């Protein structure tokens, strides 16, 4: 019997492209994926559960994890740390479960450095005009912030070459279907299972 290790899938893309929406729709469908729970130093909000929504840590605990190289990636937003715990991801992969990360482009580049065997998927907007409309329609940013986000989005789109796959998010259902197809095809890749099949053949012939 082939005992496959899990695969780490990383979904990333510019702010406003719809990463969260696509990830939620993917997980609402029947899936064997495990979502990687992030670590944060921000306060727990009403209804949140430690170890379900986030792993909640103090600043000191988080900085110790950085020093001990226990994070696949991390960043600081508005004086709070956010990061992906390496041990949790590795243990889940070792159990044969696929792990799914939904993170910003800078975080994805850190993961690529620390775990290059991951599968990197870039979620692409149908156009920059559409991306601007999505950011504007959030209604949470002023004009200066919108311009900054669009400049950053252009820079992030130029980093697309670092990814394995590109999925255009012009329709959430279609984008999710493409990601499901990517997951399936990755499990069928020859190099993933060749070594395991060779070991079985060697065991049977010895």
TrEMBL record:
Guanylate kinase-like domain boundaries: 6-184
Gene Ontology cellular component annotations, sorted alphabetically: cytosol
InterPro entries with a match to the protein in the record: GK/Ca_channel_bsu (IPR008145), Guanylate_kin-like_dom (IPR008144), Guanylate_kinase (IPR017665), Guanylate_kinase_CS (IPR020590), P-loop_NTPase (IPR027417)
Keyword Transcription: no
MF terms in GO: ATP binding; GMP kinase activity
Pfam families in alphabetical order: Guanylate_kin
Catalytic function, reaction form: GMP + ATP = GDP + ADP
The EC number(s) this enzyme carries: 2.7.4.8
Location within or outside the cell: Cytoplasm
Gene3D superfamilies in alphabetical order: Guanylate Kinase phosphate binding domain (3.30.63.10), P-loop containing nucleotide triphosphate hydrolases (3.40.50.300)
Recorded family membership: Belongs to the guanylate kinase family.
Descriptive protein name: Guanylate kinase
Source organism (scientific name): Ornithinibacillus halotolerans
Gene name as annotated: gmk
